[in-house]
Design brief:
The protein is 26% helix and 21% strand. The longest helix is centred in the C-terminal third of the chain and has 13 residues. The strands form two sheets. It has a 13-stranded mixed sheet. With 373 residues, it is an alpha/beta fold.
Length: 373
Amino acid sequence: MKGIKYLTKLDQIDELSDEERSTLKKVTKKFAFRTNDYYRSLIDWDDPDDPIRRIVIPNIWELEEWGGLDASSESIYTAIPGLQHKYERTALLLVTDVCGGYCRFCFRKRLFINGRDEIARDVTEGIRYIRKHEKITNVLLSGGDPLMLSTGKLERIISQIREIEHVQIIRIGTKMPAFNPYRIIDDPSLLEMIRRYSTDQKRIYVMVQFNHPNELTDAAIEAIRLLIKAGAIIANQTPMIRGVNDDPKTLSALFKKLSFIGVVPYYVFQCRPTAGNRAFVAPVEETYEIFQRAQMDCSGLAKRARLVMSHSTGKIEVVGKTDAHTFFRYHRAADPEQIADFLIFKSNPDACWFDDYDEPVTEYSISSNGDSH
């Protein structure tokens, strides 16, 4: 399927009525719209609740006032333009502000708003920063979607990172296998580049985002097969999205199908309280129960995902609940002293984010020699 056409105007979506287009243009004035012919073809237009439609086609609910544009305070971890350094061993390079499609629930939708430029158009300073910080072993390329760059430009970035001795892992965060798998299938130079720089001792990880089983088409599976054959390790991460994958049957089907094709289910994220996202968010404790019921239906290989929130202070894992309490653990932390801290809060069924809970009932810190505080 060569010559995928990208669509950035609602007038290009013939399946929408004139009335729908008129209404939804109010949304696209605020939040950018983008999809392509391939991804549009996955939508069942006879189903108003079709999950693929919900992922990519604007909805009037996005205009509800809720959340902020930088829900996880990424700005405070921006060491230099285009580079975030939140965790000691990981640096994140924002290398593009374009995606194969714009997810309506995107937590970084601020990048697609005119006048906001947080991207490293030139990674020279970022590479210099990574070279100076020898504790950095992981570099994550993100954006936007790095696979929207030409293979030549992407290789220039990856080759420079590979020259840094202390960087062991390069990660490419991409939804392109779902949005446009032909970007991979039809570009042997991309696969050759992966083969060249994903070495036996220093792998390239491709962090894909499949949100729903319907995205795992034959073409998507072929793209994954080719990436694995080229030497990449593939892991999937997805937010839990209201109306897309917020039921155990759908989520377990996603986990199982990913494991069948050799993709590790890695993270399920609590959908961030980003502006425009209210209709996509399930409360934390409901998310946890859905996640647990989904995993109960999976084999061990399909149940490796962790349920986390990418909070401003770190990746906070939701690890359990009772009727009275909900339990969290810092899976990653910006402050190394907080890593593995265990927190118990009174249950709050309406809480959509970590900040919606009151002070913890109990906090246990390994870094404090086992003393709870």
